[in-house]
């Protein structure tokens, strides 16, 4: 006589057990998320500790000067300048060197502005971060080199930049402060004993001397 078949009973989960399992899963996920957040915050604090502390910007030297060299002229001088400029342009046209006309007009205009527009007082600062001149500031990495020049009884500090505009900064300084300014700038920029010039600079100096002699 064959043995009776045993009935197989499956353990079916009750609704109460399913709910408890879901709660446990949520707790595990929440614990994992909190652990990840703690790790991220810890890494952020380590990065902040590794970064060197930011130094405050320190003013090394400051002075005030006129915004530009000012040599007041009369109406007679202005008439001479216009006639001289027209004569130079005629010579340029004769030799067909048309590309020189624009620089000549620009130099004549600058000479007129320097002689007719009174300068403003501007404050300049040399800081550990760069140079501040009036409302403009320049970082050291934006500047290239510097030199000094004497023009019309003024000492000029000239700084070439690595910017498209302005390509050059010209500041008036007191002659007595020249060495002090030089020593400060040497910590950040190379100094040129012989100024760097191009044909436009030479043309500008030549015309400036001509215009200056006209007034003499």
List keywords for this structure.
alpha+beta, PH-domain like, single chain, 216 residues, 5 helices, 4-stranded antiparallel β-sheet, 3-stranded antiparallel β-sheet, elongated
Element layout with pairings:
Elements lengths: L14 H36 L8 E8 L8 H20 L6 H16 L4 E7 L2 E4 L2 E4 L3 E9 L2 E8 L6 E6 L4 H8 L13 H17 L1
Antiparallel strand pairs: 1-2, 2-3, 3-4, 5-6, 6-7
Helix pairs in contact: 2-3, 3-5
Give your account of this protein's structure:
The protein has 216 residues and is an alpha+beta fold. The chain has one domain (59-215): PH-domain like. 45% of the residues lie in helices and 21% in strands. It has helices at 15-50, 75-94, 101-116, 178-185, 199-215; strands at 59-66, 121-127, 130-133, 136-139, 143-151, 154-161, 168-173. The strands form 2 sheets. A 4-stranded antiparallel β-sheet has the order 1-2-3-4, with helices on one face. It has a 3-stranded antiparallel β-sheet with strand order 5-6-7, with no helix packed on it. Strand 3 and strand 4 form a beta hairpin. The mean pLDDT is 82.
Strand order in space, largest sheet: 1-2-3-4
* Number of helices, where a helix is a run of at least 4 consecutive DSSP H or I residues: 5
Count of strand segments? 7
Give the CATH level 1 class.
Mainly Beta
The count of domains is 1
From the helix content, strand content and strand pairing, which structural class follows? alpha+beta
Q: What's the rounded overall pLDDT mean? A: 82
The percent range for strand residues is 15-25%
Q: Can you tell me the CATH superfamily?
A: Pleckstrin-homology domain (PH domain)/Phosphotyrosine-binding domain (PTB)
Residue runs with pLDDT of under 50 for 5 or more positions? none
Mind telling me the C-alpha Rg? 37 Å
Instruction: Using the 3D structure, state the CATH architecture.
Output: Roll
Measure the end-to-end span. 144 Å
């Amino acid at each position: 006589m064959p043995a009776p078949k045993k009935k197989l009973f499956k353990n079916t989960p009750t609704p109460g057990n399913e709910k408890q399992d879901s709660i446990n899963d949520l707790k595990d996920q929440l614990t994992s998320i909190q652990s990840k957040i703690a790790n991220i915050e810890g890494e952020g604090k380590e990065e902040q500790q590794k970064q060197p502390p930011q130094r405050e910007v320190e003013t090394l030297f400051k002075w005030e000067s006129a915004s530009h060299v000012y040599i007041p002229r009369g109406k007679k001088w202005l008439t001479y300048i216009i006639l001289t400029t027209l004569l130079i342009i005629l010579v340029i046209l004769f030799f067909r060197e048309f590309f020189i006309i624009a620089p000549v007009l620009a130099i004549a205009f600058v000479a007129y502005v320097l002689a007719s527009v009174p300068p403003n007082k501007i404050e300049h600062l040399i800081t550990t971060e760069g140079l501040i001149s009036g409302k403009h500031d320049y970082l050291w990495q934006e500047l290239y080199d510097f030199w000094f020049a004497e023009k019309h009884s003024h000492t000029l500090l000239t700084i070439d930049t690595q910017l498209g505009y302005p390509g050059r900064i010209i500041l008036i300084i007191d002659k007595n402060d020249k060495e002090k300014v030089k020593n400060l700038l040497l910590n950040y920029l190379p100094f040129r004993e012989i100024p760097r010039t191009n044909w436009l600079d030479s043309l500008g100096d030549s015309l400036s001397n001509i215009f200056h002699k006209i007034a003499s």
